[in-house]
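Hi R.,

Here's the chain you asked about this morning:
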Amino acid sequence: MTKDTRIQALGQLGKWMLNLDETSLHTIQRAHYKNPWYTEEYILKQFQSLGQQLTDEKLNQWLANYPDIESSKIVGLVLAGNLPLVGFHDILAVLMSGFVAQIKVSSDDAGLTPMVLDRLAQVEPLFAYKIDLVDKLANYDLIIATGSNNSARYFEYYFSSKPHIIRKNRNSVAILTGKESEEDLKKVGYDIFDYFGLGCRSVSKIFIPSGYPVSTFFEAIEHFNQSKAHFKYNNNYDYNKSIYLINGEKHFDNGFLLLKEDKNIASPLAVVFYEEYDNIKDVVNTINNCRERIQCVVTDGSFDLEVPVFPLGSSQCPALDDYADGVNTLDFLFANQ
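And the predicted structure, written out as C-alpha cells:
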C-alpha cells in the first residue's frame, strides 16, 4: 500500500465513525454489558473524537514529513483498556507507518477494537495483511506497551531486547486562576468526569488560588451529578467518602465528587485533589518537577510549562500529533524501519 492508499482508507474509516451503521451501534450497546465502564455515551463520544481526526486533510498534515515506506517488520502492541479504543492511536501510527501491527487487546476492550479493525479491512482489504490480533505476542521487531506502573516494570524487563515504548500511569491537572467564568469551570468538569476520570488525560488535581471559594467550583460542575447514577462510579464515591470520614480527613463533598487537599497528583476515583497557591511560579515549578507523571495540563492561563497544555474542557480531545507521554510514536517507528 502507498501512503495515499492508507490515508484514503483511514479517511473513510473516520466517516464511518461519525455515522455508524445499525450493526455497529448494536455492538456498542452490547459492549456496555461486557464492560460497565464503557457506557454507550462515552463509546460514541470516543468514536466522534476519533472520527473528527481521521480526515484526509489532517492525516496528510500529520504524515507530511515522513516517507512513503512499506515494512515487513512487526510491531507488537499491548493495549490498555481503561477507555474505549484507548489504544487506537498506537494502531493508527503503526499502520500509517507501513508496519505490521500485532495487537494484544485488553480483556476490557469489549470487542470494540476488533470491530473497528474489521471495518478498516472492509474499506481497504490490504489492511487485513497488516493486522494480526493475538492472545500472546511473538516474533515481533518493536514493542509499544501500555500498562500500570507495576506492569510497566515488567514490560521494561521483558521487552528490553527490542526497541520499545513503555507507557506508565499518568494523570492530568488543571490550573485555575480564579478569573474563570461559570462556563469555564463547567468545561473543567468535562476534563474531570469524561470517561469517569479513568483516563491519563483525566484531571485528577486542580491548583487553585489561596482562599478560592470551593462552592463556586461545585456550583459550576453540578451538571455532572449524573455520574453518581453509574453504580461502579458511585461505589468508588461511597468508599472514598467513608474512608475520609472514618479517618477524620478534611474534604469537601458535593454529593458526587470529593475534593481533598493533597500534594499528590493521582487521586482515587470520584476524588479530585486540590492544592492552593499564592505564587503561580510555585505551581509551574511543581508541575515541571512532576512532568514524568503528568500527561497534560488544562488551563486558560499562559505559563512556562514543560508538559502539553490544553484549553479548559479539551483534555480528552487530542489531535493526531498530541502523543501520549510526549513521545512521538511516528519518529520512533520511522527510526526503526
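The first helix runs from residue 3 to 18.

Let me know if you need anything else.
M.
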